[in-house]
Amino acid sequence: MSACVPTRATDPNQTERTHPPHSPPPSGPRRFRIAGADVSASIAVFLIALPLSLGIALATGAPLQAGLVAAAVGGLVAGRLGGSPLQVSGPAAGLTVVTADLIQRYGWRTTCAITVFAGLAQLGLGCLRVARGALAVSPAIVHGMLAGIGVTIAVAQLHIVLGGTPQSSVPDNLRALPAQLADMRPASVSVSVLTLALLMLWPRLPGRAGHLLRKVPAALVAVAGATAAAALAGLRLPKVDLPSWSNHALAGLPEGPVLGLVAAVLTTTLVCSVQSLLGAVAVDKLVAARPGNLSARVGRSRLDRELLGQGAANIVSGSLGGLPIAGVAVRSSANVHAGAVSRNSTMLHGVLVVIAALLMVPILELIPLASLAALVMAVGIQMVSLNHIRTVTRHREVWVYAVTTLGVVSLGVLEGVALGIAMAVGVALHRLTRTRIRHEEKEGVHHVHVRGQLTFLAVPRLSRTLHLVPHGADTVVELDGSFMDHAAYETLQDWQKTHTAQGGSVEITGRHPGTRISEPQSGSDCRCRPWTPWRNHQCDGPQSTPPAEKNPDGSCRSEPDPTGPGSASGHELARGISAFQRNTAPLVRSELARLAREGQRPSQLFLTCADSRLVTSMITSSGPGDLFVVRNVGNLVPRPGEESGDDSVAAAIEYAVDVLRVRSITVCGHSGCGAMQALLDSEPGGARTPLKRWLRHGLPSLERMADASLPWDRLAGRSPEDAVEQLCLTNVVQQLEHLRAHDSVARALDEGALELHGMYFHVGEAEAYLLTETEAGGVFDRVRESDLTA
């Protein structure tokens, strides 16, 4: 396999710099162009970002201009330098509580300095390439943090909605709420109610006219409608006040205790980074769900680069007196759904924010603060997602979610996240130590039942239970768990040796009683070579059968009694297992013991057909632990995001790339593939059997072969024998394309940590071919000894 030629993802933005011979060179550089889809998407994002940026600045207690600065910098700097082309960055609701607390403690200028230092920390983390480490945080902690921030925002903004002023913490706001309700201002409440009503009703407008009107963002309609209503009614309310840009406060030297400032920088860095990286992953999923012609034009997120872009944006935003910046889910999803195809939409939205901040100040100053407060309160409520609660409940992590949420609400973001992490560790330890061990006696036989993971923490209980068994008694130990560590293994083995030496018997079984964990006794004198059982020989006949004859290679051949217990109709599996235990197991036991201790560390994912003639270990000369093998009918890789897709293949790919860290993936087709023949013979309609439903994932290969504009994939030195072989070759190339569309594979390819290979095995010739992809189509070359030494 060392002669494989890796495939490389091509850069869609790379232009061809050569020109045909005897032709004049290009007349000049290409003109900068912005796709129409990016223009329309940028306008949609701008209309959402403008009111939200002002509202978030209001919620933090920062100058309202700081929200516009952060929105512009997020679009221009993070949009240009970040690794997620369609993620929109700016002032995020998830940072509201952190920023408000910093402003109250240290003042605005020091908060800007903290933002700068947080950006520098993000640059350092990006250079260290630890972006994926942030994704290791439990989703329950992240969702709990966002829910706690959402509750804090909603409770604080409720006071502004009622016409008052929020307090510094959620408990203080809750204690002051009765007095605020008694002294609420009808004008503020009416404007806020109108804003909330428009927010909820606008996306639900019925009919064709409603479909057209819903293209205008609900946030813009709500704020504009409330502003117009307040102006027409002549209500006197506090409104947006944007002082002259000449008086705008910039970052100053940080003032305060060093430890407090360091904690503030770490908190800001953590929240900004985690929210941005999780947002980038979510954007990739949204892009993958779009139609193929749109998703193919957008590259996958590069998380380390995204972290660098966010760090640069925070440095610029803090220096210019802007709020901290992170990826924003609402604006990013609007950008994707609006059809954006490049980072130009994000940058253009930043330009529009700059234009609005300079030219639309008189219009912005008409907006009532109560309307912005209602808008931000609605965003805070939406951060408490019922879908997230159902998800963490299903995964039995609701306590982690609840503790994180309550910690953020009561103590603060950093403290709440720390409590959530501690709770997550506690839950994991509880699951690890939740081992039930019981002893009972049935008909003179002592049974020891172990339920759960058997680790060193359960060794004292295991030892006490085992000593309840009398000396010399017959004992059955039933292990019902997926893990046993070395300490538990030693304890069990030592007791077994001692108990056996005292005249007792010990049988260790698996989950189902009667399934012995032991080596079967040899029941025949037939000795077959350990590595030849695939030759379909027949061994282990009963003692009454005639002596076994020898095959030319030394393997055995005997004809079992067709009426006896050793007949081929029911005992081939048992005979094969017995032969393995007797002949092969002694040769591989030490190697398998090492693999059992160290765990599996395969270097390759090998995805091939379920055809019984294709023996992966034989054609790749690999042994136990070398290959992570996935087999299915037709060696198909369903494209991600397809309705009713098969998650088993996608799960294996994700596990191999993200957990096992394989360095290469091989898609292997073979000659005479029944699945490809079935595709060629398939007709529209008919019964939708499970096989037909599965084979629909091979239809793109059939379409690729029928596409006259694409060159045919071929074998080196000869043409395909027939249409089936042609489809087998085309299918390998097509499944590699499907493979590149998976998130984990795309990320690993971008990082240079993974290679993709195509392979074709001709069963009749026992010949393997490796794929080399060229502009003229894929070519499958034989693997020769000279290739290995080249």
From TrEMBL:
Positions of region (Disordered): 1-30, 500-571
Subcellular location as annotated: Membrane
Pfam family, one: Pro_CA
SUPFAM superfamilies named among the record's database cross-references: beta-carbonic anhydrase, cab, SpoIIaa-like
Record-annotated SLC26A/SulP transporter domain positions: 37-394
InterPro entries attached to this UniProt entry: Carbonic_anhydrase, Carbonic_anhydrase_sf, SLC26A/SulP_dom, SLC26A/SulP_fam, STAS_dom_sf
Biased composition (Basic and acidic residues): 550-560
Membrane topology (UniProt): Multi-pass membrane protein
The entry's keywords: Membrane, Transmembrane, Transmembrane helix
Positions of transmembrane segments: 39-59, 106-128, 140-164, 184-205, 217-238, 258-283, 351-379, 399-429
Record-linked SMART domains: Pro_CA (SM00947)
Function: Catalyzes the reversible hydration of carbon dioxide to form bicarbonate.
Similarity comment: family membership: Belongs to the beta-class carbonic anhydrase family.
Protein name as it appears in the record: Bifunctional SulP family inorganic anion transporter/carbonic anhydrase
